[in-house]
Design goal:
The structure is a homodimer. By secondary structure, the first copy, chain A, is of the alpha/beta class. Chain A has helices at about 30-35, 50-55, 60-70, 95-105, 120-135, 150, 190-195, 200-210, 210-220, 220-225, 230-250, 265-275, 280-300, 305-315, 330-345, 370-380, and strands at about 5-20, 45-50, 75-80, 85, 115-120, 140-145, 160-165, 165-175, 180-185, 350-355, 360-365. The mean pLDDT of chain A is about 95. Chain A folds into 2 domains: about 15-190, 3-Layer(aba) Sandwich (Rossmann fold), CATH 3.40.50.1970; about 255-380, Dehydroquinate synthase-like, alpha domain. Chain A contains 16 helices and 11 strands. Chain A starts with a strand and ends in a 6-residue tail after the last helix. The first copy, chain A, is globular and about 65 Å long. Strand 1 (about 5-20) of chain A pairs antiparallel with strand 1 of chain B. Chains A, B: Its EC number is 4.2.3.4.
Chain lengths: ~375, ~375
Amino acid sequence: MQTIQQRFKVEYNYAVFFTENLFDTKNPLLQDFFNEYTEQGFQRKALVIVDEGFAQYHSDLSNQIHSYFAASVSHIQLAPEIINVPGGEACKNDPALFDSLVEAVDTYGIDRHSFIIAIGGGAVLDLVGYAAAVSHRGIKLIRIPTTVLSQNDSGVGVKNSINFRGKKNFLGTFAPPVAVFNDLTFLRTLDDRDWRGGVSEAIKVALIKDTSFFDWIETNTTAIVNRDEKAMAYLIHRCAEMHTDHIAGGDPFEFGSSRPLDFGHWAAHKLEFLTGFQVRHGEAVAIGIALDCVYANKIGQLADEDLSRILDVLGRLGFDLFHPKLSENDKINLRNGLNEFREHLGGRLTIMLLEKIGKGIEVHELDADIIAQSVDYLEGTKIIHAL
Amino acid sequence: MQTIQQRFKVEYNYAVFFTENLFDTKNPLLQDFFNEYTEQGFQRKALVIVDEGFAQYHSDLSNQIHSYFAASVSHIQLAPEIINVPGGEACKNDPALFDSLVEAVDTYGIDRHSFIIAIGGGAVLDLVGYAAAVSHRGIKLIRIPTTVLSQNDSGVGVKNSINFRGKKNFLGTFAPPVAVFNDLTFLRTLDDRDWRGGVSEAIKVALIKDTSFFDWIETNTTAIVNRDEKAMAYLIHRCAEMHTDHIAGGDPFEFGSSRPLDFGHWAAHKLEFLTGFQVRHGEAVAIGIALDCVYANKIGQLADEDLSRILDVLGRLGFDLFHPKLSENDKINLRNGLNEFREHLGGRLTIMLLEKIGKGIEVHELDADIIAQSVDYLEGTKIIHAL
């Protein structure tokens, strides 16, 4: 019998909107979005899930959302309960939390043509996104990221995940949202660590792809540190744009093993784990970038001047460039992260290093001794703001 | 800030192979397939998971697989353990079974570039497919279906699922396999119910799309009942071909709410549930087809002669056309299935009915009284072989 060759393409299409005061009834953005979903015979619903860490600073949020839907989106039936979930990495470790979200999908009759609206930081978006992706084989997900990191990076991308028995992101899918709404005003209640944290992802993407964006960040470090919203709005938009362009232009669902956007991430993932997530993702990425830039410099790939500019920008933004856990156990703990990174990516180890500012290049091995020397170098820079 | 419009396509591509004695070292098919995966720097692995219901009739299977890999696929590292899981619907109800498969992925270091090979009936393929799809955001899945139903229908498609707290297929994804291997010799150990069961999916697709295929089935009922392998091989190939064509030609990941391939399925799903899965999926589909054909005839849409031919073919193949659970509680239990079907599809109720043999047409409502009359009609046909 002749072999059947199956072949098809699936198209994805979503907008990342930038706005302020999203749930103000005078803001028509969300209303306009839902007005595209008015077919006869459908009763679409929406279930809203909010990061507790965000909700505590926005005590009126639940009322605002109910009022907005009543006034402007009355054709979509809002589930009566707005569900709060704990924020931060911990929420991805708790299978009962995942189960409770799936249970809510059932309780409120959220079907494949209804919406789940996730409001929160990257961890909550990951958890809710995973629950949405696997319930009924995929409910329409709207992401409303509330941190710099999620607005410029994870929240605009195509992944979700939870941890499994302590293994980070072990369970997850590639599942694009139907829309992302980035509200600048939501960033006002961030503490300085989370305001700064997401900037490292912008530096990352600038370093591997866009010299002029790095120049801009370098020029604007003071404005960013001083919480200038206009500067931050530009930084987030440019970073989100480069992130989405990269996804669309390459291998969206990562069938290959190259992952350029993971520049600086192999050490970052390990450091987050080694510190029990006390060092947050963006902070760990800053250290990971610093480490891999020192490494690239030590093997003669990255010029002294470029290295100096990179470390200077990270330092002036307030990032630590070293953490004692990097050195612990004669750096063996850190170096184990390299193999774990390979296992998670699958296939061959592929690490992005810099050739110069604005241009990355992939390598397939790192030397353990030079990693150790790079850690020592960072320790010597004494750029540690608060341990 | 300007809205970012993200848009991309993801391409999927897999072969459905037809063979005999797949794990005989003289059969190069599997070897040829894996020879496409020989890149430098990769150490791909394979984890094999087998349906116990199949394994009990193929006691040498584990040895055969180990021998085949040792002789012909030595560049892929076979996990030392071949895992058996219980077959049938029960395996999709047990979260611990899902967890144990994810645990095995971790234990044996199965990464995104390695393979999970699922051997079994539709329920096992669903469970293993789901575990593969969400582990590391998707491990390459090879399906080796061992029933008529899975070789001609579910096993060649793009879905997977498990049940959640008794809700059928509540959790799942759309995740195409990297290959499907249909081995005709694996069907020899099926009992008559499972040999017959999958034929109802072939009748389904013939009725809505291909008159000449229905004619062929009608002509070959005796050969099929007599377990003629050549006839069955043709039936499976043609049904699988129509199934994969339908997926590629339409809406592979079902973003819309039309599901023509669910012809006969609304009542089938409910009947499976009402009988605690004592009535198997293919058997339930045969009754569901009969019910919807009688309905279409009663509303003047399907000619008497066509209805008669359809019921005759189903009856001659040995399918029951009625089950007492259809009538229970004054048919209210059955009719509830209609709303559950709508909720599962999401959006608007869409039911495929026949206009004539070879041509389906979608409707958006069914009349409760006419459903009841159709059930009574089926009860009156007395085509009940064994209750």
